[in-house]
Amino acid sequence: MTQKVHLSAKAYGRVQGVSFRYFVRDVAKTLGLKGYAHNLPGGDAVEVQAEGEKQQLDKLVEQLEIGPLGARVRKVEIIWTDYSGQFSDFDIRH
Hints:
Layout: E1 4-14, H1 20-30, E2 34-39, E3 45-53, H2 54-66, E4 72-82, E5 90-93
Parallel strand pairs: 2-5
Antiparallel strand pairs: 1-3, 1-4, 2-3
């Protein structure tokens, strides 16, 4: 049986101005996940909220730690919570 959960993540480093949010969106959609990616103030962090199967979210976390070409991810903070079903797609928030 698959377990659906909610992932709250913050990726720190050179993650703004390198298409990081678009990279996250593409990976998340490929994995069948819902949620959003959002640049945080300060210029060195991107917030990701995502929901779906735990196994697919684990794959997303692996990609968050790598990032797209040009990114330098210093660290990723992760918080797991209960699935809420609040998202209908994966978006980029401005």
